[in-house]
Design goal:
The complex is a heterodimer of chains A (477) and B (483). In chain A, helix 8 packs across helix 11. Chain A is built from 14 helices and 11 strands. In chain A, 36% of the residues lie in helices and 13% in strands. Chain A folds into 2 domains: 359 residues, Alpha-Beta Complex (Amidase signature (AS) enzymes), CATH 3.90.1300; 84 residues, no CATH class. With 477 residues, chain A is α/β, with parallel strands linked by helices. An 11-stranded mixed sheet of chain A has the order 1-3-2-4-6-5-10-11-9-7-8. Chain A is globular, with a radius of gyration of 21 Å. In chain A, strand 10 and strand 11 form a beta hairpin. Chain B is α+β, with helices and mostly antiparallel strands. In chain B, strand 7 and strand 8 form a beta hairpin. In chain B, helix 9 runs antiparallel to helix 10, helix 12 packs across helix 14 and helix 12 packs across helix 15. The longest helix of chain B has 20 residues. The interface between A and B is large, with 43 and 29 residues.
Chain lengths: 477, 483
Amino acid sequence: MAQDLHRLTLRQAIDHAAREGADGILHDVANRIQCCNSSVNAYVRVKPAEYDSGKNIPGKSVFSGVPVAVKDNICIEGQETTCACAILKGHVPPYSATVIRKLEDAGATIFGQLNMDEFAFGSSCETSVYGPCRNPWNLECVPGGSSGGSAAAVAADMAIAAIGSDTGGSIRQPAALCGVVGLKPTYGLVSRYGLIAFGSSFDQIGPLTKTVEDSAIMLNAMAGHDPLDSTSSRRPVPDYTKALTRDVKGLRIGMPEEYFTDGMDPAVEKYVRDAAALLKKMGADIRTVSLPHTAYSVAVYYLVAVAEASSNLGRYDGVQYGLRASDKTLKDMYFETRNRGFGEEAKRRILLGTFVLSAGYYEAYYLKGQKVRTLVRRDFEKAFTEVDLLLAPTAPTAAFKLGEKASDPLAMYLSDIFTIPANLAGIPAISVPCGFTPAGLPVGLQLMGRPFEEAVLFRAAHAFEQETEYYKKKPGI
Amino acid sequence: MKYEAVIGLEVHVQLGTRSKLFCACPTRFGCPPNHNTCPVCLGWPGSLPVLNEKALRLAIKVGLALECRVAERLKFDRKNYFYPDLPKAYQISQYDMPVNGRGRLKIEFKDAAGSTQIREIGITRAHLEEDAGKLLHEGIRDGSLVDYNRAGVPLLEIVSEPDLRTPAEVYAYLVSLKSILQYLEVSECNMEKGELRCDANVSIRPEGQTSLGTKAEIKNMNSFKAVEKAVEYEIERQVNAVDGGERIVQETRLWDEAKGRTFSMRSKEEAHDYRYFPEPDLVPFTISRAQVEEIRKTLPELPEIRTLRMIRDYSLSDYDAFLLAQEKPLADYYEACVAAKANPKLAANWIFSELKALLNERRLAITESPVSSGDLAGLIRLIEDGTVSGKIAKEILPEMFETRKSAEAIVKDKGLVQVTDASLIEALADQVLAAHPKSVADFRAGKAQALGFLVGQMMKESKGKMNPKLANEILVKKLNVGC
């Protein structure tokens, strides 16, 4: 069966499985993982074989059994789920996240769990307790993070499609660095029930796929109201694949001037500007807009998101699940468990978050952060009265070397400078490949839209992708 | 120096919903440990809270009964601290926007001189929050276990203004609050089951001073009486300390019921910084005024109004009406009794004296009374129509209590019907007059009290069955004839 079915896009795989069943695809993907995972380290766990095959009747569901891989912070009933952190080693959730149930209901086979930065804290996938994930385009480079495993697996054809989570760019930035499509949906479009929380008012689950069409297919299955998530929206979900018209005529696209700054890699800037020019040629109306509070985004994010994180991570105390390092006294149990269970970045964020919520600092940091967040949101609201979409780079650079920023948290935080604002405002954003640097590393184009207007994102991203065909280029692994 | 105590109470009431505040787990008491739990109330990774709207309705109901200002927007906050009974390491509570703002509670009590006092106590706020689990230490070596059945059970924390001044007022506040909560059917308020918990903030200040002294928070009382005693002890402790030249420190103190004293648990310096912030998992939403009005329509007649109505309808004394109305089941029993044609005044007397004594003896609640309100009304009717005397009735009631028979049946079985046959009474009167010539002479000499003795003799001879009024009349007639 040397058909290389792992190379199929989700659309192709679904068509194949509808005719012939998904077993061949599952087989080829499993083989591909076996051959590449030792070098890429995208997967932390692959489901046992007996779980995978047999039950999928061809053509009886949307996915017909096509496999989807899952970031290790989304709960799967009966499967160890750890957030790539020592403190949750051995933790087996007694329930599945709503997105997992929805994907299974749509006929997907949940197949394997993907590497990530510990608790989704990071932009390089280097802080995982399972060791760093590597970029399939250059194994010396990081895949980005925190959903680095999801992006790398899709890029290396080790997964047909994957899901990740995006709190400050954790889907889009690795998608850009690995040359795949990554969507952060509008806050509230996809249920967070079962996503192990980092920053609850920012977190969104979204797909990482080989094409924009695949992203739309995934979102069709994932989106919709969930009574178990009070922050999930009740609005009806359209069929996103209907938006793929290959037509951008009359679409008003704004280029925020604050996103084209000096610190940017020239190759990145070139490809993003080229993309704008191409869209203009295709009939879009390209304008310059201003989002004046952009400069505060990273600072605000690292106040508010870490505050939420410090509270969300309090429960890892050794009492109920995961690691318990000592039980000499209650204090020993807390101190030892958390000291040994959390990595350095988690500790840094817990301390920072605890500090900004402390008596005497709350007003100056957390509260002020929330106020500035409102200003950032208003920037977007204003811009979206003039344009339908915003166009910007996804990340300021292409993939960087392993270890390059690992000891410089500030430099690392700045890799999310262009992705964080969408999380602050809760708006949808997509990253789609738009070129390769001279070193052969992918560059990502980011499009941001109005809340719940994912269809507009898909329309523009799909038209651009079909015109450029960067998705056809594969890493030589 | 003379001191005045300043006391405020924080009362936690479990709201009587079937399911927990943020998940569908049952709230049932007395289940095996960790039986009523799910990923949400256990705080397992990835789980999210969803508000129980019934709990919100009950909270608003209490707020309206306490005349609180109901918030326009509902918002929750996280209160962060570490303890093994707190599964998420934060409690979902309400910090700066409680569902119920300022209100008031009327209390009625007897002061030191024994006269009835009525005071209005300010309510600062009443907010919704989730309960924590419970640590189990007993019979466990090498550590403790946690039971999360209670984790996530809805609580309403009702905070009073520091308006209370004496232990008697504290007790009256709790009784009055419990009364309202029972009328609203939001809680049974059983302190032993933890359905109601009370902490007291106590400080003292020289009489006449308006600024507040340093307070101590007293915890761990498990009955209203214990709260009263703990507050009494604490006031005395603080007065003695200040008189002895000490400074009161802000601290949390635990009441030790066995030793009858409070002792220090932690000082202000050791107090938690709870790092409150808005709960991002629950979106703030508007409480419409229409919704509040709709809830207001479901409010039952509350004890204050019922007291007034009972004074008006049954000509009861203020205090009797208050005592009845305060205990809803008692007032219900009373009104059922009156509805069954019992004389209202007699019914109140019989319930407060004879019935209560019997119930107390057997430690029964009014709802468990073996004598139904209808049966008590039957007994009272027999007294009223002269079938039995009050004295006989007092013997019948315990029998009704034991046998659950009606008063009429007992009267019939035992031949206790009062003698009203004039010829029988006259015959007995003649007998008594003949047996006591000295009393007859005394009466005729103008000593009126001799008549009382003669009536008493007739009652004695008839074993209490003689109608005393008729006996009196006939005796007087006969005595006057002889003149």
